[in-house]
Design goal:
six-stranded antiparallel β-sheet; Rossmann fold; 23% strand; 545 residues; alpha/beta; GMP Synthetase, Chain A, domain 3; globular
């Protein structure tokens, strides 16, 4: 009798496959900054009596040394104490990029109070309108004073408005690392903003980690047009330069928006080695700069692209546009961060392969900074495998302590030492790729639709201004299903046949047909202070049309 060949095991008999690696990354070991508070960092830099800040406002630049900044901060602190502001109170900072913002910000620390930077308008507007726009922040923060300019002193504030520092500094209380350094109200792209409370220690750590990752030092030179009330401008530019002692040149946002070519021209004139900006800024600079071959950008080492989804097409466009100026091919670096981690989480410091995700090329934002961890979690809270999309969660020495007087929101966001960001990502090959936001996802015909894909396709149209497209879902009144809606800013000469063109373009590029297309005038779509469209507010706008 012949022996039987061994029977191939059935699917049921086979052992389960070996699980793949989990979607988790850790940065290098945690760092120990040389100081524990921002006033300590300012005092340290002031002792060197070195040049620090240059403000490019008006016809001639103005200088502010660290010693000058420390003295100005002491005078703003004295003005606050004279106004009866007590330790731990909040004060609103409504000031443009300039010496008084710097003095008032650090002056609040020296007085033991908590600065709340808020949006300075890109272009002048009546004071009552600015006060009305800030009503949600004023209600949440309950400030005891507003530090602002004379133009905005009479807007009907609920507390005293201080428009100038005192003549002399006053004796000041001490500050430790656990005290709040500032409250950063998030931009509210998907709803009302929340006030992330950032401690002194968290602010110092994040700025130190940024500089460590980039290898920054006293020999570097930074240039930023970003508003100092925004985390990327405040932490990524101002505080990082404070901790590392390099020179920083500051423009005003309105000057960049009016003349985007001013940014690369100043990069050339100042010999900057560091620049920061959101994706749309790199696009604008590439499109609007004439004769780039006359510039010199060979010394630019890092151009950090973050604060909004980074598009590979933008990175390539900027790199190609300024190659004649000597810009190296790997200078534009996609980065990821958010206000609840003070700012930076991960930097893409090396060119890696893009992730193709839902027909979209997603650049990597690299690996976490020193002392930081990232895990991607599924709906059940478990860490997902590599290659699977999940919610980005972050553990870090620079996490916010919570949202100001919002325990329920804090409990949802901060769980067991991990920040649940609401952002979606994929980890592949030891690198993080940010794919979107949970609240932005649209479910259409049984599939996930990412608004960024739609917005990127339509943003390439000639008459669309930066940030002039928003894609979002609206519930169908009949059955509650998602309707895919596109709102798009166009100049009046392009309105004729625009809805048909939009539908045709999206069907051709993505195989998607929007249920509704709303064409509006330039500037009509609500945006955050950093220029991102506010989709929840855009939805309300379209619903009211």
């Amino acid at each position: 009798m012949k022996s039987r060949e061994p029977r191939a095991s059935s699917r049921r008999d086979r052992p389960p496959p070996e699980p793949g690696p989990l979607a988790a990354l850790a940065g290098p070991p945690a760092l120990t900054p040389p100081v524990s508070t921002l006033p300590g960092a300012l005092d340290r830099l002031a002792s060197l009596d070195a040049p620090w800040l240059t403000f490019h406002v008006g016809a001639a630049p103005s200088e502010l040394t660290a010693q000058d900044a420390f003295r100005l901060a002491g005078r703003w602190a004295a003005a606050l104490l004279a106004a009866g502001v007590d330790r731990g109170d909040r004060v609103i900072l409504l000031l443009p990029n300039g010496p008084d913002f710097v003095g008032a910000f650090f002056g609040a620390h020296l007085a033991g109070v908590v600065p709340v930077p808020v949006a300075w308008p890109f272009f002048p507007e009546p004071a009552p309108r600015r006060v009305a726009a800030l009503a949600p922040v004023l209600a949440a923060a309950r400030p005891k004073a507003v530090l602002t300019t004379g133009d905005y002193a009479g807007g009907g504030w609920p507390c005293p408005a201080l428009t100038a520092p005192a003549d002399h500094p006053a004796p000041l209380p001490s500050v430790d690392a656990t005290q709040p350094a500032f409250i950063q109200f998030t931009s509210g792209t998907t709803g009302p903003g929340k006030g992330a409370v950032i401690s002194q220690g968290a602010a110092v750590y994040n700025a130190w980690a940024i500089g460590h990752a980039l290898g920054l030092g006293e020999g570097d030179t930074g240039l930023s047009w970003l508003p100092l009330f925004h985390d990327m401008g405040l932490v990524g530019a101002l505080l990082t330069s404070l901790l590392y002692g390099f020179r920083l040149h500051l423009m005003r946002p309105g000057d960049f928006l009016l003349r985007p070519d001013r940014w690369p021209r100043l990069l050339s004139e100042t010999g900057a080695t560091l620049a920061v900006g959101p994706n749309f800024a790199f696009d604008l600079a590439a499109k609007k700069t004439r004769q780039p071959e006359l510039l010199s950008l060979a010394g630019l080492r890092h151009a950090l692209n973050g604060s909004e989804p980074v598009h590979r097409s933008t990175v390539e466009r900027f790199t190609e546009a300024f190659a004649p100026a000597g810009l190296a091919a790997d200078v534009v670096r996609p980065v990821y961060g958010l206000a609840e981690n003070t700012l930076a989480v991960a930097f893409g410091l090396e060119r890696e392969e893009d992730l193709t995700w839902h027909q979209r090329a997603v650049p990597t934002v690299g690996r976490p900074l020193a002392g930081m961890e990232v895990e991607l979690r599924g709906p059940d809270g478990a860490v997902v495998p590599e290659g699977v999309e999940g919610e980005i969660t972050v553990k870090s020495p620079s996490l916010a302590t919570g949202y100001f007087e919002a325990p329920e929101q804090t409990a949802r966001a901060l769980r067991d030492g991990w920040l649940h960001t609401g952002d979606l990502g994929v980890i592949q090959g030891g690198r993080l790729y940010v794919t979107g936001r949970e609240k932005d996802l649209i479910f259409k015909g049984g599939q996930k639709v990412y608004p960024y894909e739609i917005e990127a396709v339509l943003a390439a149209e000639e008459d669309v201004p930066p940030g002039g497209v928003a894609a979002f879902a609206m519930p169908d009144a009949s059955d509650g299903a998602d309707l895919l809606v596109v709102a798009m800013e166009l100049k009046s000469r392009s309105w004729a046949g625009a809805e048909q063109r939009v539908r045709g373009r999206l069907v051709e590029a993505l195989g998607l047909r929007p249920d509704r297309v709303a064409i509006v005038a330039p500037g009509a779509l609500p945006r955050t202070t950093s220029g991102k469209v506010r989709r929840a507010a855009c939805r309300a706008l379209v619903e009211a049309m």
